[in-house]
Write a structure and sequence with these properties.
The complex is a heterodimer of chains A (235) and B (577).
Chain A: H1 7-10, H2 21-52, H3 69-102, E1 110-117, E2 120-125, E3 138-141, E4 143-147, E5 152-158, E6 163-167, E7 172-176, E8 182-186, E9 192-198, E10 211-216, H4 218-228, H5 231-234
Parallel strand pairs in A: 1-5, 4-10
Antiparallel strand pairs in A: 1-2, 2-3, 5-8, 6-7, 6-9, 9-10
Helix pairs in contact in A: 2-3
Chain B: H1 2-16, H2 24-29, H3 34-64, H4 78-114, H5 122-144, H6 164-167, H7 170-200, H8 213-244, H9 258-292, H10 299-312, H11 328-356, H12 365-388, H13 390-396, H14 400-430, H15 436-462, H16 481-514
Helix pairs in contact in B: 3-4, 3-5, 3-16, 4-7, 4-8, 4-9, 4-14, 5-7, 7-8, 8-9, 8-10, 9-12, 9-14, 10-11, 11-12, 12-14, 12-15, 14-15, 15-16
The complex binds protoporphyrin IX containing FE and copper (II) ion (CU) (2 copies).
């Protein structure tokens, strides 16, 4: 069961890089299986009818108008089944949605700020004191540094137009809106360097609004913090 | 402002009517005949489809071969790429799908199918086309003005769309909104006619449940359009004010709210999907019953499902905004309504498949198109479930998965549905039979490449490829070679598909010039348009021959009759043994 959510990772399509990525993938697989079966059945019956009921000399079509109970069953039963499957999908979708977008896990290890503007991402890291909005905060452009396994909250903002913060391997995506600060969370589980995208069209340079996130082991991460702490404070 | 001039002209035409009016093409331009107006909409729509298709060709070439000098266009800059994508979407929805499916076929078919000599308000009908024509000029002009065409996506989210310092296209974006606004006005006027004509001009004897499904569909679509477009029209005017007068309705810097636009847009935008879908599924109903020689399975089920779909379609709009900053708890409600809407749509598919059961199926070209519609639309339908489930949409939102999903709905609607309708009613519209052999070549060379365009795009979307990006080289995870190969497959398939359209135009030309003359009722179909000459004369029937209706439109293969069809206007006494 656990493995199911890792299917897309296993086939090399998209890696799993956060604590909730596999939940989303599990939901996708569930939908894939449920609607896939329906889809194949419908297409099969459809093609079969086309072949089976091709016109033949001397055979006349049946006169069926679909008001007969016996015939109507062929519509009502599948349609009730669709409803049942819809409920199943809704339930799992709710669980995933709540986990990622509603239930904000408490006591994060750190809070970061992500700011979108035409056409770059600014990342504000809490720095050595692990507190955001203090003088030792580290600002970077298009490069986010986080420590593997730690729980992060982010505050997402925009300066001019809409942008959308997306890291595909984390399965995270949230629009950034000027004038608002939107809070969310993530917990990286894979070390490496990954794409940050802007997924909301934001003008001329939308296509080049690319960033990276560096997920580092604890030692590398503290070394990075040390090396980048604003000079005047390090004295 | 154009209106007084139009009204004056309308007066003239009135006086000239039936005598020797303005000759030549002027007469054509001022005609109030619903069939002429239908043709005007159809040819404008097809012309715009060529432009929209050309845009797709240009940006697909850029994606497959980044930096290439695209033949017929040149190098594509990031700004041009955005403008091409934006206007491709805008044209395809507002200047292709709507004018062809709703306006052209609505105009052509409604009076003929309900047995009327014309629309109830012929002059409003003409005004509708004239405003549409004006809107066409405005939107085309917006592409070539200084600064370039609007490039903020067809959804035109502010603040980007509202402020020229952000979008860098001061003229283009204002003309874009004006063009779209005028287009809405044109369709509001058209809708009035569709609804009143169905209500008031039905042939004697035609009860509500004797009306062909396609007419119901077009009328319900018009009602959905009318109910949903108002807020967006208001929004469009606010947007124009933001752009030109410096108001700040959508600009948070001056206390406005950009999300408001999203609600106005999608409150219209989602029903709009059904506005174009319904006429297409109506067309399919007519064609499959004719060529399967079958009564429609559950006429009333279909009527009830479209009404259910129509009502539900007003309560799903925020599924486009799950991650757009709305209250996340709202997503739950919209997930439920969105998945609920799958029920009537699935039911509709079942009805159509069930209609084939026990039929005597003839695979003519229109029938192939109609069947392909069902087969392909199913893919669009089932992939929508992935996106309606908010949890999965976190990942899919604004990826090529969404893009491929909605092209699997829009392409069947706007392209497959149009070809189905066009080839089915071509004998009626032009009085000639089309070449079946060419028609089938055209069919297969469109359908097969279509799937090879968009299936790779599903895979790319699953792999995390996001939309409206002119070059994926900036994203290492998306720049891998096998992803690039998928992009090339999609683009090459598009080239094949576009080339195959030459067959279609050649077929039209050849059939029109040298085709076999079409009889009144070449497909042995039941509905009223087949009871008059091909093409129908002005007034549709001779005044003393207006049809009277005795039964519903789908009485095929009725037992104990010699013929396997039973035209709606045939009195009961004749023909039954
Ligand atoms: C002729 C075949 C077509 C091809 C190859 C095609 C291809 C594409 C592609 C690749 C994009 C996305 C570009 C990007 O995001 O970078 C796109 C966008 C779009 N297409 Fe098509 N398309 C076709 C036909 C249609 C039709 C028939 C419709 C609707 C009736 C349509 C409606 C749209 C819309 C609404 C968008 C979104 C525009 C936006 O992002 O603002 N397309 N198309
Ligand atoms: Cu962007
Ligand atoms: Cu929608």
């Amino acid at each position: 069961m656990e493995r199911v959510g890792h299917f897309f990772d296993d086939i090399g399509l998209i890696r799993i890089g956060s604590s909730y990525a596999a939940d989303i993938d599990f939901l996708i697989i569930l939908v894939l299986v449920v609607v896939g079966v329906w889809f194949l059945a419908a297409e099969f019956v459809f093609m079969y009818f086309i072949v089976k009921f091709r016109e033949k000399p001397g055979r006349r079509a049946d006169y069926i108008d679909g008001t007969n109970k016996r015939h109507k069953r062929w519509i009502t039963y599948p349609h009730l089944a669709v409803l049942v499957f819809d409920v199943l999908i809704v339930v799992v979708s709710f669980k995933v949605w709540h986990k990622i977008k509603i239930d904000l896990p408490e006591n994060p290890d750190a809070v970061i700020r992500v700011i979108g503007q035409q056409w770059a991402w600014t990342f504000q890291h809490p720095g050595a004191d692990a507190e955001l909005d203090t003088p030792d905060d580290i600002f970077t452009i298009d490069e986010l540094h986080v420590e593997n396994g730690k729980l992060y909250h982010f505050k997402l903002e925009a300066l001019d137009v809409l942008h959308s913060f997306s890291v595909p391997v984390w399965r995270i995506k949230q629009d950034a809106i000027p004038g608002r600060s939107i809070t969310g969370w993530f917990q990286p589980t894979m070390i490496g360097e990954f794409d940050v995208q802007c997924t909301e069209i934001c003008g001329f340079g939308h296509g080049v609004m690319a960033g990276k996130v560096m997920v580092e082991d604890p030692a590398t991460h503290s070394a990075w913090i040390e090396a980048n702490t604003p000079a005047l404070l390090a004295e | 402002m154009a209106e007084p001039a139009v009204a004056v002209m309308a007066h003239h035409e009135e006086e000239d009517h039936g005598h020797h009016g303005p000759g030549g093409w002027l007469k054509y331009l001022w005609s109030t005949d619903h069939k002429v107006i239908a043709m005007q909409y159809m040819f404008t729509g097809m012309f715009m489809a060529l432009i929209g298709g050309f845009m797709a060709y240009v940006f697909r070439m850029q994606l497959a071969f980044p930096g290439i000098n695209v033949p017929g266009f040149g190098m594509v800059s990031p700004g041009e790429y955005n403008a091409l994508v934006t206007n491709h979407g805008t044209l395809m929805i507002f200047w292709v799908a709507m004018p062809v499916l709703l306006a052209a076929f609505g105009n052509y078919l409604i009076p003929l199918m309900v047995g009327a000599d014309d629309m109830v308000f012929p002059k409003i009908n003409r005004l509708s086309f004239q405003i549409f024509f004006l809107s066409t000029i405005v939107i085309l002009a917006s592409l070539v003005v200084e600064g370039g065409g609007f490039a903020g996506a067809w959804t035109a989210y502010p603040p980007l769309s509202a402020n020229e310092t952000y979008n860098l296209t001061p003229l283009g974006s204002t003309l874009w909104v004006v063009g779209v606004g005028l287009e809405f006005v044109a369709f509001l006027l058209g809708g009035i006619n569709f609804i009143t004509t169905l209500m008031n001009s039905r042939a004697p004897g035609m009860r509500a449940f004797d009306v062909p499904i396609v007419v119901w569909m077009i009328v319900v679509a018009s009602i959905l359009f009318m109910l949903s477009v108002g807020p967006l029209l208001a929004g469009a005017i606010m947007l124009i004010f933001d752009q030109t007068l410096g108001t700040g309705f959508f600009d948070p810097a001056t206390g406005g709210d950009p999300i408001l636009w999203q609600h106005l847009f999608w409150f219209f935008g989602h029903p709009e999907v059904y506005v174009v879908l319904l006429p297409a599924i109506g067309v399919v109903a007519e064609i499959i019953t004719t060529f399967a020689r079958k009564k429609l399975f559950g006429y009333r089920i279909v009527i009830f499902t479209i009404v259910a779909t129509g009502v539900l379609s007003f309560f799903v709009w925020a599924h486009h905004q799950f991650i757009a900053g709305i209250d996340p708890r709202m997503a739950n409600i919209f997930t439920i309504t969105t998945l609920l809407i799958s029920v009537p749509i699935a039911e509709m598919c079942f009805v159509y498949i069930a209609t084939l059961y026990g039929g005597s199926i003839r695979l003519t070209t229109p029938m192939l198109w109609a069947l392909a519609f069902i087969a392909e639309f199913l893919i669009g339908g089932v992939t929508g479930i992935f996106l309606g489930a908010a949890g999965a949409d976190i990942y899919f939102h604004d990826t090529y998965f969404v893009l491929a999903h909605f092209h699997y709905t829009f392409f069947p609607i706007a392209i497959i549905g149009t070809f189905a309708a066009f080839t089915y009613w071509f004998p009626k519209m032009f009085g000639k039979m089309m070449d079946e052999r060419l028609g089938k070549w055209h069919f297969w060379l469109t359908i097969i490449p279509f799937n090879f365009i968009f299936i790779p795009l599903f895979v790319l979307g699953m792999g995390g490829q996001h939309r409206r990006i002119y070059n994926y080289a900036h994203f290492p995870e998306l720049a891998i070679p096998w992803f690039q190969n998928m992009r090339i497959v999609a683009t090459v398939s598009l080239l094949v598909m576009l080339a195959a359209q030459l067959i279609f135009f050649y077929n039209c030309y050849k059939s029109w010039r040298r085709g076999r003359k079409a009889p009144m009722n070449p497909w042995k179909a039941n509905s009223l348009e087949w009871t008059t000459q091909s093409p129908p004369p002005h007034g549709n029937w001779r005044p003393d021959e207006l049809p009277v209706v005795y039964r519903g439109p789908y009485e095929y293969s009725v037992p104990d009759r010699d013929d396997d069809y039973w035209p709606q206007n045939e009195p009961d006494s004749r023909g039954s043994r």
